[in-house]
Amino acid sequence: MSKSVFIVPHPAHSTGKPVEHHEVKKAGGEVLHKTKTQKEAIDWAKEKGHVPHVAREKETKPDPNNPEHWRKV
């Protein structure tokens, strides 16, 4: 059974700092994996049977509980 995960840049775009890595997170915030790029994070999540989602707006802090903030990839 696949589960939704969220691909989150770190630090967040809203900080104005450059992105160092991307985290694959569960809805509760648990980090499952870290990668250098968003694509690597998406590929890893799919390989593990998850359904990855990325933020629709990079400038705001997306809420995992609000489906309008995310899009499935």
Count of helical segments?
1
The order of strands across the largest sheet is 3-2-1-4-5
Quaternary structure type: single chain
Radius of gyration: 11 Å
Q: What is the overall silhouette?
A: globular
Assess the beta-strand content as a share of residues: 25-35%
State the major sheet: 5 strands, mixed
Order of helices and strands: EEEHEE
Average pLDDT level:
86
The count of β-strands is 5
N→C terminal distance: 17 Å
- Kindly state the percentage of residues in helix: 10-25%
Contiguous runs where pLDDT drops below 50 for at least 5 residues: none
Backbone structural class:
alpha+beta
Secondary structure elements and their pairing?
Blueprint: E1 4-10, E2 21-25, E3 31-35, H1 38-47, E4 51-55, E5 70-72
Parallel strand pairs: 1-4
Antiparallel strand pairs: 1-2, 2-3, 4-5
Index terms:
five-stranded mixed sheet, about 35% strand, globular
Describe the model.
This protein is α+β, with helices and mostly antiparallel strands. 14% of the residues lie in helices and 34% in strands. The chain has 1 helix and 5 strands, in the order βββαββ. A 5-stranded mixed β-sheet has the order 3-2-1-4-5, covered by helices on one side. β2 (21-25) and β3 (31-35) form a beta hairpin.
